[in-house]
Design brief:
Blueprint (H helix, E strand, L loop, with lengths): L1 H31 L8 H7 L65 E11 L13 E15 L2 E12 L8 E12 L5 E18 L2 E19 L5 E17 L2 E6 L2 E9 L1
């Protein structure tokens, strides 16, 4: 019995050595040819699935990189501009003790029409009553309507006049004439000085020895004076003139004339 037990233990030990040797041989074969299959089916059943002890374990694939997602951008709201306050009101200047500013320059409307009165001396017709045999002078008064179609720095006037012998009525001499004038005038505030030359012609009735004698009258002269403005529109004018009136008439079969050089005074009112 003892021998039988020893024999069984020896066989078991031997079988264990053979199994260990087989495992070692299988490991060497697997290391030499890891990709080849075992030809012995018995050994393959005993060994089961082969384990690769030499190859490193497969590294698991790395996960894809994750992209860090930023939080949504928060809109930046600009702060409102600071409120601007209106500038402080400028205090009124203290009252000045200086003289007040001068009024705006006066700009009158230059003459356009006027009604005027003129007086000048002329000569009588007929025999002289003086010791020097010179013709006696006689005064004439004239009323005229003067119109200025051009009135600026240069002025052009037309004058329609009626004159009569001073102090006489139905038995005195009289005339009607039309006169043109050309002159200059200058604005100088309320006073507008002027100077003009004139020339005119007309009809003159002479009364002599209870008879009416038709004659013609013409004259040349100059006037110088000023218009005084009471308002922007409206003036009174005064002028001093020098006249050369001539009176022509028929005497029998000849044409004769008389003339004189005289001063005149003219005053008018107009707009």
């Amino acid at each position: 019995m003892r021998r039988a037990g020893r024999s069984l233990a020896g066989r078991r030990a031997l079988a264990g050595l053979v199994a260990v040797w087989g495992l070692c041989a299988a490991a060497r074969v697997h290391a030499a040819a890891p990709d080849e299959d075992i030809d012995d089916p018995k050994l393959a059943r005993r060994l089961g699935n082969r384990i690769d002890w030499t190859s490193p374990p497969a590294t698991p694939p790395s996960p894809p990189p994750t992209v860090a997602t930023l939080p949504p951008a928060v809109p930046v709201i600009a702060p409102p501009p600071p409120a601007t306050l209106p500038p402080p009101a400028t205090p009124p200047p203290p009252p000045s003790l200086a003289a007040p500013a001068a009024e705006a320059e006066f700009d009158p409307v230059l003459p356009r029409v006027q009604l005027a009165f003129r007086r000048f001396d002329f000569v009588q017709l007929g025999a002289s009553e003086s010791a020097s045999s010179l013709a006696k002078s006689e005064a004439f008064d004239t009323l005229s309507l003067d119109v200025y179609p051009v009135s600026s720095l240069v002025r052009v006037g037309l004058s329609t006049a009626y004159g009569w012998q001073a102090g006489k009525t139905s038995d005195g001499d009289y005339f009607a004439s039309e006169t043109a004038s050309l002159g200059v005038q200058i604005k100088a505030g309320h006073v507008v000085p002027f100077a003009e030359a004139l020339a005119g012609i007309g009809y003159m009735r002479r009364f002599q020895f209870e008879h009416t004698i038709p004659t013609v009258i013409w004259q040349f002269g100059i006037d110088a004076g000023a218009s005084l403005y009471l308002a922007r529109v409206g003036f009174v004018s005064v002028a001093l003139g020098y006249l050369h009136p001539v009176n022509g008439f028929l005497k029998t079969t000849t044409f004769e004339s008389v003339y004189t050089n005289t001063w005149s005074f003219k005053i008018g009112i107009g707009i």
